Each structure stands twice: as C-alpha cells, then as structure tokens.
Amino acid sequence: MKRDLFVMVLIMALPFLFYLYTISPKNTKIWKTQFYTFNSGYFETIDLYFWTLSIKFLTIGLLSIWFISCLRKWKYVLVIPICFEFYKLFVNINYAENGSQDINLIKVLFISALFLALLIVSSIKLQYVTQGNKINNLINEEINNQLIKISNFDSNDYKLIKKELLVLKRQKGIIERKEYLIKLIELRDRLTV
Fold first, then answer.
1. Alpha-carbon gap, residue 179 to 140, rounded angstroms
2. Residues 1-19: pLDDT tens digits?
3. 152 shares a domain with 85
C-alpha cells in the first residue's frame, strides 16, 4: 500500500517538477540566487538550459518508475535507455560549462551504474515482482478451482433445474412474490457452480 502510494505520488509529481524550469528568468544568461549563481554557458538563455535539463530529468524519472514497477524480466532492457539519458544529460551539462559535447564516457557509466544499482535495490525492496507473482498464482488457483467445478457439473442436473424453473414460472401468479423469489434464488444457487 505504501509503495503504491509512493509510486503514485512520484508519477503525479513528475510533470509538475518538469515545469520548475519556468521559475528561471527569461532571456538572461546568468541567474544569481542567494545560494548559487547559474550560468547558461553556451546555451542562449538560462531558461533554455533549465528546460533541457528538465526534459532529461523527466525522462530518467519516468524510465526509473517503469523499471521499478515492471513485473517482467525484460525490465532490464530499460537499463539501455536510462544510460543513454544519463549520457545526454551529462553532454548538456558539459556543453553549458565548456561548450563541448565531448564527455568522459567512464564517468557517465560510473554514475549510471550507481543510479542503476539504486534502482535495482529499490525494485527489490518494493517487491513489485514478488507481489505480482503472488497475485498471478492466486488468480491461476481460482481459475483452476472454477474449471474443476465446471467439469464436475452434470448436465442432467441442469435439465432438472430447468424443468423446476418452468414449473415455478407457471406458479408465479399463484404463490406469493417473496416465496417465488426465495425458490428462484434456491434454483439459481443450485445452478451456480
């Protein structure tokens, strides 16, 4: 329950976090705050730089949520786009600082590996896979039980119940409504597997 709430809040918050770039001043290259001075570097404006970073963080966030909550083994394929997004994020940061799109691939792979390790641990800790397997097993068990009941159902019983239903329909005007409904429910319960 708590993990579902956490993932749900995270999914709802990501689009709003994307729009944080709008708090940056428009048409300026430098933004001075009391904590830090942001420089757009080789980007035209600081809001364009923040917008680019917001897109990368949004993509990484959505891919991460997908990885954590995925019940299938193919979720490890998502590692590749996550690594690419980290690479593109660091290319944008490096471009803003140095004007170069050359990046140390080892550095990016190391940071991506740390992030992916965190994702794998989170995925294991949140136990979506084991919970999904438990639910699938319960559903399969229920389906098998119902199929066994259906296979044991005798068609002669069905014919007998159908005859009793026809007799009951003929008596509908003769007996009280409550008694009619009680007998109808009894027939239904006998027919129900």
1. 39
2. 666 777 788 888 888 888 8
3. no
* The pLDDT of residue 193 is above 60: no
Q: Are residues 147 and 75 in the same domain?
A: no
Same domain membership, residue 150 and residue 77: no
Is residue 91 located within the same domain as residue 37? yes
- Which residues have CB under 8 Å from 123's CB, separation 6+? 67, 68, 75, 129
Phi and psi of 30, rounded to 5°?
Answer: -130, 135
Clarify whether residues 123 and 151 are in a common domain: no
Give pTM, 2 decimals: 0.63
Domain boundary among 127, 152, 180: 127
Number of domains into which the chain is organized: 2
Of 80-94, 109-123, 163-177, the poorest mean pLDDT is in 163-177
Residue-range definition of the domain harbouring residue 155 = 133-191
